[in-house]
Amino acid sequence: MSPLRTRARIVGFLFILAAVSSIIGLLLYAPILNHSDYVVSGKPVQAQIATAAFMEVILAVSMIGISIWMFPVVKRYSETLAIGYVCFRLLESTIVIVGILCMLSAVTLGQAFGQMGAEQTGPYLVVARMLVAVHDWTFLMGPNTALGVSTLMMGFVLFHTRLVPRPIAVLGLVGGPLIFVSSILVMFGLYGQTSSVGAVMALPVFLYEMSLAIWLMVRGFNPEVTRNWQDSPRLVSAV
């Protein structure tokens, strides 16, 4: 199997891994995300939240991996876009990690509350709600705002290079701006991030990532475009 074929499969796998881990993490976070006072209720949520945090760690690592493995490919078209793509993926991952720390801190807060047996829950609830709110904002700014920019960059490159079928690239060109605009509208309170409108605005990006992942794993990059790349030491030796 050629290095390019291997690279395509790895990128496709990482896209799927990122999607699956983010969904599992969000579902496991549900008790705290929906009811922040759950943190100080004394219920055993540590293992569940720790598992959710681990899922988001996988998400962050997957996003970084995608940018690293795609860098030499995108660089063939534009070094500026290649660097920009890596930077925005790193930004997205960093924001996700901040959210992870907030959720783990919320669990620690719940443990402290249980050990102290405090009668006044007010201060604990305020801090718990603040931590959950920060996670909510990181979930908006990372996998929405930053993702929108990086998706637009990659869609632009894929469209002009024809490395994958153009309909897939068009999904990225449409989905990237949509989810970016959606994050701004959510920021101004026009609708909720998990509302039906938010889901519709995020759908093109989801379809783009899944179709791109499946295509790369099954078919790889367009051989007519990459035929002259096979003997390139720069691409073959890159991570």
UniProtKB/TrEMBL annotation:
Q: Is Transmembrane helix given among the entry's keywords?
A: yes
- The membrane-spanning stretches of this chain are 12-32, 52-74, 95-117, 137-159, 168-191, 197-218
Ribonucleoprotein listed as a keyword: no
Protein name (database record): DUF4386 domain-containing protein
- What Pfam families does its record include? DUF4386
Which top-rank group of organisms is this from? Bacteria
Keywords for the protein's UniProt record, in alphabetical order:
Membrane, Transmembrane, Transmembrane helix
**From what organism does this protein derive?**
Deinococcus cellulosilyticus (strain DSM 18568 / NBRC 106333 / KACC 11606 / 5516J-15)
What the entry lists under InterPro entries is as follows: DUF4386
